[in-house]
Amino acid sequence: MSRGYLFIKIYSKKGSGEMIRLVLNQYLDKKGITRYELSKRTGIRFQIVDNYYKNKVVRYDSDLLNRMCEALNCDIADLIEYQKDETP
Question: Distance between CA 27 and CA 15 in Å, rounded?
């Protein structure tokens, strides 16, 4: 059985004011769940969970995000946010 992966690389232009970022750290802290616990629930190595937690990921793996959402019983919007600078 093969697994499909979707890799998304987000490019941010300096001064564009737009940014997609992970907010997994905020979600886990709010729910009182540790990175270690999420790693155990999902079967994802701790170092990978830690990279998502610290927003150090450049390419998001849809399979990993799906497993996190299933384990946390949340939507993808709970883990990723889009910020747009509204200033002219």
Answer: 28
CB contact at 8 A, 51 and 57: yes
C-alpha distance across the termini of the chain, in Å: 50
Which tokens is 30 given? Answer: 């709010």
> Among the residues of 1-88, which ranges form H helices?
24-31, 35-42, 46-53, 62-72
- This prediction's pTM: 0.75
For residue range 34-50, list pLDDT tens digits in order.
999 999 999 999 999 99
Distance (Å, rounded) from C-alpha 24 to C-alpha 5? 20
| pLDDT interval class at 77 (50, 70, 90) | very high
CA 62/CA 8 separation, integer angstroms:
8
